[in-house]
Amino acid sequence: MLKNAKASYHHRVLNDIRLNPRKCWKAINSIFPSKPNSANSTSNHDTMHTKVQQFGHYFANVARELKSKAFPLVNFAWRHNNNTQALRTNQIFKFSFVFTIFVEKELRSLKRSKATGIDDLPPNLIKDCATVIAKPLQNIINLSIKSSTVPALWKSAKVKPIFKSGDSDLVENFRPISILPIFSKIVEKAVHRQFYNFLENNKLLIDCQFGFRRNRSTKLAATLFCDKIRKEMDNGKLIGCVCVDLSTAFDTIGHGILLDKLPAYGVEGPELAWFTDYLFNRTQLVEMQNNCCRPSTITTGVPQGSIVGPLMFIVFFNDLKESVKNSEIIKYADDTVILYADKDAQNIENALNEDMNLIRDYFYHNELLLHLKKGKTEVMLFGTSQRLRKSGKNLNITYSNTVINFVTEYVYLGNVIDNHMSLNGNFNRSYKRARGRLRLLQSVRRNLTAASAIDIYNMTILSILT
């Protein structure tokens, strides 16, 4: 009887929400046994209070401590070299005031399911009051633009720790999800739209960057990557590739360095002062089960959970290409691949080592940390089976006297790519994922009707295989 009741309940829930993918996945995840996804499993109040303080200290200081170890006894704020000078524009970026119609439209487009920020104002209330509050909010946004200041509350984030993997008692196995006040998102949308359009209209962003840009995607970046390799293989060449992975890339961006780069992109005067105020004196606090830690000041990184932050990151990282002498670069945000093709593997090794030395200098001057752990930054050599056998060589590419791990297969933007450009890696990965989900489905099958099981199969397994 209990089994039939569970099956009927799950069938009814899935049937009611089948047109809402978000709710469908939430329901499916509740059916499948899963690992904890947050740190909320501890119920003791004193223990939870201690845990919250630990998370608060760790999230606020991890990036700064990483940088202090990597770059000791150096004035962080003004170390970078002037690569941006090669990209300097004569155009000047100027803010425009926003209209009430823009503010009201953005308020009405809010998702009711959005989490509340530190101000605890629910999106439902804000959305329903859009007509009434649009004009006052427009005045505040325009005052922010005019005075080059951002309200302090709009720079305060509420942080939720989400479990990644490993030991759930260790704070380093959690990632922070930052939630900013909803009103801050409106002023950020206005700033983002104006600055992004300025950058694109003046062609200031390098063409090889595919992250956080309109009409670009991981799929386009991966397609370009594969097309370049296949083209060189068709021309009888080998292709060397360094897949670069940065440690906590967004969190280690130096505010002083970023602000020093912005004038090359036309940001000066009041506009530069606005971005300065936007970045400095930001705070965050961790909240778990109604327990909050003390607010911490964030001294490095672009704001997590923000709209302007990702744009600031690609502007910061935009001048990397100016440091490279021999190779081609493809970037999706911080995911970067460096490619060089030649018929001689030794020439490839020499060219890539020269460029990695230049990139090492760029990373040092810009306080960026390369992740050299196995499975992160890695080296590949592409070619036909015949040419790879003939070369008989593994590329020996170094970074700061450390040899980068050489592999024959790498996961690039979700695609398994091997050194022959075959599809075997993707097939194997899809098979393993489908098999794992099929086992999960089998474990809960007795609590599902046949129709519910078919629905779950189509959504979680068939979607992988097609």
Automatic annotation (TrEMBL):
It holds the Pfam family RVT_1. CDD domains: RT_nLTR_like. It comes from the Eukaryota. This is Uncharacterized protein. It comes from Paramuricea clavata.
